[in-house]
């Protein structure tokens, strides 16, 4: 990681030379030490605030990061507030993938696939709408404030940067048990949205704005087509990646990656768990990461790829590994992701007081706050502009999941947080533009991220309690209307929850009626059938491994269910 | 990580700009992708060679790294063989700690503590002896070869560098089940030895050799005293770290680190497992890492600290966490360490063909091999010079563990491997000396590491089979003479293995006789009593958590026992 200048504010660093490390590494060591200590503190405080309805992990670590940053700032006599400078490479290559992977690994697949069309609609179309709105809005409003002298490319970049919602914070604010529908919608959208906005951003970076704007618009359309090309190509990548990850040894994955290296004999022979759980877990983790990196290298969206890897692995692979591997993977992936999330928010918090940037941007505090306010307003408008229309349009087509206004409001609200992706992208943009404009962008994005995460984030939870659960207790399966709830339960065969087999006795004469009443469920139903009939026998999965009730597997599952 | 120059040999890199990453990160992405793919390959091949008595994980990954390096070298038209340059900071801060921690976490504590005095004797005195021998020997022999023009400091550095055994490779070569005594001796020595040689190296770096040599020798004595100061100070650090890590929430640790922050109320209240396993595992891992970094900052030996952290955590903390946490920690720590070990050897293997270094060192191939041969000979002599004498001296004092000559031979042989620590230290040395001398040192240390790991490493396992198990099957408890075996078993109360309680019925009238016959065991016995009476009730541990036979805990333990 990049490091700030020599530290007069670390007395320890001077007494360092005798330690078991190279001399020049001393500063890194001190920074890392402080950082790890802060991480421990974050976990402790987050644990103490467990039952606090206002706070959550991200806010805690963000605020702790701010405190630490200001302390460092004081200690360094207003020279630098950064123990570790924000490094987008570190973020995109090492921090983000495990988090997204774990999200896919832990997501309730039933809900997710049931709302899949909705999620993609939100993630792609919605993001594009808010991108346009924020770009155009900032283009006109910035002149009012007096922050001008920016090119078209700059405003488009701003649009892409600020249309990237923060899925990490959403994960912590929404509860998968209480509101599964909202969770899957908002979170799933968040993942697709990240991918979309990043691709948009990169295309904006590549565009040349010296030509007339008609061509630019055309090129933006090209972006969009490219985006869909990406998604389709990604589909291939994901399927191959699933093919890579389902067999009990992830060996076929190695076939895919080192084609012709292995023969059918080894496939049959290779069952990692027999030898060691560690190797099994290691290969699962490495394959997932490899899929992300491969997607990046092949110019696909790594975020989507690794997310689907997580989904596929928890759907097939997870059921084929030894029992201890199951518990280990579940918890270790969750733990890693947990640590990294805390790390990121701590990071952003400490980076907020980046004194140099604030100095470089000659705009006054007043201007900064005005611009940030405008951006926040644009974010809210931009999100409102697609959430309510799309949801109401969807209402006409799929009538099983009626999303009433209160839920629409929550969906709108829960996507207002901006996070690390925004920061990372604005650092990337600032590197390509002048130092003044770059600093201007970074300071504003930091302000927006801080405000949205802390204020919006802390309000969200009470808001959900107030709006959704004021009248009624939440129904366990989510927000369906009780009438069709039972039918859908039967349709889904409840594979992701308890009784896998009960669906077998499902009277098939009722299906026809259900298909007419629930088109989406029907698609899901046939997929389910296909999955049970062909996929699972081939790739494994629940119901095809001996599942002894009362065995430690079920006990472990109990633990998991209790915890998640 | 540092990166080599622009890559003409990565066609993918050109097609990269559209991917979801900053443009300049493309090379890193490609390198990391290739590296992760290689890691997967290593695991696969290592798995296939599982039952091969000659190969082991380190050798496999080392050779794979060599192949990858040579391929890169060809692809780059003899320009560079390095995807990722060897970075000692990366090694010492991120790679080494988890490995050593896991070693302490998984080590059989009974064996380890029983041979503690022996281990320290080997690690400290032994290392110092071989350090002197190698330094003096190289000083005289290098002139014979014609490799002169080095200062005294250089030769002392060589002595420190090449007296650092490779504990990682030992872990994989020796089997803890088959030869527990040898394992605990050789491995425990390896850990202490790493610490010693690193401290020796750092002190040699700080010495000023323009004065007369009498003063230098005096200063070296100072080193030695400093070393012991370190060890004692370390004891304090470790005890505090144990105090940090034993309570069921590691909260008292946070008291130690953020003194006065928390009150007795929160201690009572704080039980992480209740809320989430993830937080529990996270805090365990972070606290251990924090102890390492703190030790580094305070100029203590981080390696020893984190090793004892691992021991303490598996002895106390591990028994206080939830059952799923237990399985998770056991396996995830092992997995992380496993991945990192593979990573390091892959790394060293790829770095071996560092063409620039070979060009820089103007010494001919012949000279290089002569020097490497001399170094290897010195390593063997230097180790023989303390293994056999010390073991025979020890034989006179402790008569329960009779180490016959065959075992002495194995102990001597198993410590001949040189590994990543040697490489890292020689890179450190080369940075301080001229590029020519630096290159000379690095090329030689690479040759020594490659040869010792591949040749010695592959021979070791068959050698053990041939020497130890030719006549007799191994006794499960190790290499004690069967006569006193039963007594010792009773003495130890077998806490680390099965029946914890059987020792309760131990007829105390036999103890006196045993104390006379087995002084070392007696010490261990009283520690055991103290531990049971005071430590465990206070800090928790086996026997003080409800242990239902047939519960998933015991099943999990079964799994663990089967795997390890």
TrEMBL record, chains A, B:
<feature type="transmembrane region" description="Helical">
    <location>
        <begin position="333"/>
        <end position="353"/>
    </location>
</feature>
<dbReference type="InterPro" id="IPR006153">
    <property type="entry name" value="Cation/H_exchanger_TM"/>
</dbReference>
<feature type="transmembrane region" description="Helical">
    <location>
        <begin position="25"/>
        <end position="49"/>
    </location>
</feature>
<keyword id="KW-1133">Transmembrane helix</keyword>
<feature type="transmembrane region" description="Helical">
    <location>
        <begin position="119"/>
        <end position="142"/>
    </location>
</feature>
<dbReference type="GO" id="GO:0005886">
    <property type="term" value="C:plasma membrane"/>
</dbReference>
<keyword id="KW-0406">Ion transport</keyword>
<keyword id="KW-0472">Membrane</keyword>
<feature type="transmembrane region" description="Helical">
    <location>
        <begin position="154"/>
        <end position="174"/>
    </location>
</feature>
<dbReference type="GO" id="GO:0098719">
    <property type="term" value="P:sodium ion import across plasma membrane"/>
</dbReference>
<feature type="transmembrane region" description="Helical">
    <location>
        <begin position="90"/>
        <end position="107"/>
    </location>
</feature>
<feature type="transmembrane region" description="Helical">
    <location>
        <begin position="61"/>
        <end position="78"/>
    </location>
</feature>
<keyword id="KW-0739">Sodium transport</keyword>
<keyword id="KW-0915">Sodium</keyword>
<keyword id="KW-0633">Potassium transport</keyword>
<dbReference type="GO" id="GO:0051453">
    <property type="term" value="P:regulation of intracellular pH"/>
</dbReference>
<keyword id="KW-0812">Transmembrane</keyword>
<dbReference type="GO" id="GO:0015385">
    <property type="term" value="F:sodium:proton antiporter activity"/>
</dbReference>
<feature type="transmembrane region" description="Helical">
    <location>
        <begin position="365"/>
        <end position="390"/>
    </location>
</feature>
<dbReference type="GO" id="GO:0015386">
    <property type="term" value="F:potassium:proton antiporter activity"/>
</dbReference>
<feature type="transmembrane region" description="Helical">
    <location>
        <begin position="283"/>
        <end position="313"/>
    </location>
</feature>
<feature type="transmembrane region" description="Helical">
    <location>
        <begin position="251"/>
        <end position="271"/>
    </location>
</feature>
<feature type="transmembrane region" description="Helical">
    <location>
        <begin position="439"/>
        <end position="459"/>
    </location>
</feature>
<feature type="domain" description="Cation/H+ exchanger transmembrane">
    <location>
        <begin position="39"/>
        <end position="464"/>
    </location>
</feature>
<dbReference type="Pfam" id="PF00999">
    <property type="entry name" value="Na_H_Exchanger"/>
</dbReference>
<feature type="transmembrane region" description="Helical">
    <location>
        <begin position="224"/>
        <end position="245"/>
    </location>
</feature>
<dbReference type="InterPro" id="IPR004709">
    <property type="entry name" value="NaH_exchanger"/>
</dbReference>
<keyword id="KW-0813">Transport</keyword>
<feature type="transmembrane region" description="Helical">
    <location>
        <begin position="410"/>
        <end position="427"/>
    </location>
</feature>
<keyword id="KW-0630">Potassium</keyword>
<dbReference type="InterPro" id="IPR018422">
    <property type="entry name" value="Cation/H_exchanger_CPA1"/>
</dbReference>
<protein>
    <recommendedName>
        <fullName>Cation/H+ exchanger transmembrane domain-containing protein</fullName>
    </recommendedName>
</protein>
